[in-house]
Amino acid sequence: MDFELTPEEKAFQKEVREFLDKECNENVIAETESMLGEGPYSKELIRKMGAGNMLAPRWPEEYGGRGMGFMAETIKVHELTYHRGPFPLDAVEIGNTILVCGTEEQKNKYLPDIAKGEIEFALGYTEPNAGSDVASIQLRAVDNGDEFILNGQKIYNTEAHFSDYHWLLTRTDPSAEKKHRGLTMLMVDLKSPGITIRPLVTSAGLRTNEVFYEDVHVPKANMVGEKNGGWAVIMSALYGGMGGGSSGASRYYFETLTKYVLEEKPEIVADNPWIPDAMADAYIKLHLIDVMGFRASSMSDLGLSTPYDGPVSHIFGNESRRDFCNVVMQILGPYGQLAEDSKWAPLNGIFLRQYMDSPRWTIVHGSSEIQRLVIATRGLGLPRK
Amino acid sequence: MDVRLSEEQEILRKAARDFLTDKCPKTLVREMETDEKGYSPQLWQEIADLGWMGLAFPEKYGGGDMSFLDLSILLEEMGRVCFPGPFFSTVILGGLPILDAGSDEQKQKYLPEIISGKAIFTLALIEASGKYDAASVKARANADGDGYVINGTKLFVPDANVADYLLCAARTDEKSGDEDGITVFIVDARSPGISHTVLKTIARDKQCEVVFKDVKVPGENILGKLNQGWSEIQKILERAAIAKCCESVGGMQAVLDMTVPYVKERVQFDVPIGVFQAIQHHCVNMLVYVESARVIAYEAAWKLSNGMPYSREAAMAKAWVSDAYQRVVALGTQSHGGVSIIEDHDMPLYFRRAKAAELVFGDARFHRKTVARKLGFKVA
Fold it and tell me: Is A229 helix (H, G, I), strand (E, B) or coil?
């Protein structure tokens, strides 16, 4: 039993940390906190990380990775979010699937560019009538010789407005007996004629999108996996080994709040004797997020991951981080409600922004309920019917 | 990072599980709850012969030369079956402190007795305040010739009814501050002036009141240094907190392991209740608690085992596991329904032990205070 990182992982952690200490500057942080998506400073940072082979450490060196494990991936995510850099990087997530399900040609074409930070991908699964029930998607792809013609709509595709490609789940066989059998995964150039991207904004001010497809032509060379075999690709993306969660940004906010109430506003703690208990509880949970996350990653690296290690780490992490935001608001009392441009806003309102965004965390990328369904049925073997 | 057990540890775990499944059925657990001694001397000798008492002690005393981490695995297995008896008291509260702070003579004298199963040890620390702090240690040990005379009343002393020796914390210098002036003595439990009363507890374990009335102890029986016993007591408490967490993880796993098969089989509304998302979520939440408890308990045990600082990890673990065990039992009980609140079901055994485990060596709030202090908060 060993809870330490390997020397190689420690070196990687140090390298990424030192890089971000220097490069993840106020301009990048401002873009992240704007929640409007990657701006020029973020893109520049991502390219620099790519040039340093830090973006996709898990990939083989030939594709611009370092041949490391899920652990390195988790380290990267933790450092990037702790420094409040651009996240998530869907291109890398999608690249993980291309690595497993793509052709040699596709791997050579996309992976090195993703690893260099040159191209961005946006996830395109959800539709207005297909959220947790992903297999119900309807965006139609009609076979037209050496291409498909696409019509339909996606929603909540958060990175679509600054990405180069859409990682798009489409329906190629509407008459398939089981709905998950008629799906095909395509990579679509988002500059293709017939695509319209319309903004949707969350209550936290986070920009996401609706994406409309009208007679969009997509070459078959852009198909990942088999025609009508899209479900296998999406399953590989969701369950093909999984890194664990990390406290990341929440740890930054925890440290900032601790310093704030201990050094700048000791009267808050003096007036509220419950605060040390709440902060200790939050600290323990953040610690657990990291240990459980590293544990899940190490089990994946050892090839021993259970179907529940990853999801357990993620629901615990998402729910604990959400709960922490609530505690932060209570600690700040009336000041918690002040937004960044308000007079009297503590630390320029950074905590409010996190709180406003927090309900999203237990919904996106598989809601807590769907993750629990997966853990119950695939992990604990509970019956479906 | 690699949280797997080593091959040797897997063998230990399997051997322990097989042995305990065979030798420690719930019938024995229940029998021991009403037994005067609270343990089976025959089983006690068997585990001594298996080398369990000596597992974490050096070979030169007859021990197995294994680590605290290895011992933690054994404790998890014991927690799994609600193992009754003075193992925890003897090894964690008696033997390891002697190994840590004892003189060569003390180690030579007591450790082989512990390892061979001849001697039962325990810790007499808590007094009427019920608190785990130095100020609450009021029992007096007055110098008297070459030795000391102890007077006072200790509470919640586990297994004092069968103990051969008590580690007793007593005040040897009234003028010093709360933490100074406390000394730990190794006291022969059969010394004149010692009497005990078994308390009736939730876990029906044998926690006792122990009264010391003019009990004479030779000066050579001081464990560690005169007046500086509190630092050793703190170490004992941190070690015990981690050990209790590992034991609790076993109990939590047992509750999950009895609940999942049950909800797959129990039919209501013509389907197994495990189909219902309400039940599925209960089971998943139990799993989250079990997994988080195990990783935080073993991280602390691993740090202790490897000579790293572990105070913070011990506090985090006991804070988390104390509550997590309660929740696992509550969700397991809720998933089972009525059957699991009937006295002869196994669930109440865990329900009662979960609460006992929470309340001993500091509960979650107590340990969150410790964590808060380490974060820089001033906490009374």
Answer: strand
How confident is the model at residue A308, as a pLDDT? 87
| Range A13-26 burial, b when 16+ CB lie within 10 A, else e | beebeebbeebbee
CB contacts of A70 in chain B (<8 Å) are none
| Own/partner pairs, A252-258, CB within 8 angstroms, 24+ separation | A252/A81, A252/A82, A252/A83, A252/A84, A253/A324, A253/A328, A253/A350, A253/A351, A253/A354, A254/A279, A254/A282, A254/A283, A254/A286, A254/A324, A256/A347, A256/A350, A257/A328, A257/A331, A257/A351, A258/B375, A258/B376
Query: What is the spatial distance between Cα A56 and Cα A114, in angstroms, rounded to a whole number?
Result: 8
Q: Please say which residue of A217, A239, A261 terminates a domain.
A: A239
- Reduced to 3 states (helix: H, G, I; strand: E, B; else coil), residue A134 is helix
DSSP string, A170-219: EES-TT-SSGGGGEEEEEEETTSTTEEEEEEE-TT--EEEEEEEEEEEEE
Closest among B254, B248, B153, B136 to B208, alpha carbons compared = B153
CB atoms A262 and B376 under 8 Å: yes
Answer whether residue A39 shows pLDDT above 90: yes
A380/B302 Cβ within 8 A: no
d(CA B302, CA A118): 43
Over residues A52-110, the pLDDT tens digits come to: 999 999 999 999 999 999 999 999 999 999 999 999 889 999 999 999 999 999 999 99
For testing contact with chain A, the best of B253, B275, B280 (most A CBs within 10 A): B280
**The total number of structural domains that make up chain A:** 3
CA–CA separation, B262 and B268 (whole Å) = 12
**CATH number, domain B7-120, options 1.10.760.10, 1.10.540.10, 1.10.3290.10, 3.90.1310.10:** 1.10.540.10
The angle at the Cα of B294, spanning B290 to B296, to the nearest 5 degrees, equals 120
Farthest-apart Cα atoms in chain A, separation: 73
Q: Is B140 helix (H, G, I), strand (E, B) or coil?
A: strand
Chain B contact for A288, CB < 8 A? yes
Is A221 an 8 Å CB contact of chain B? no
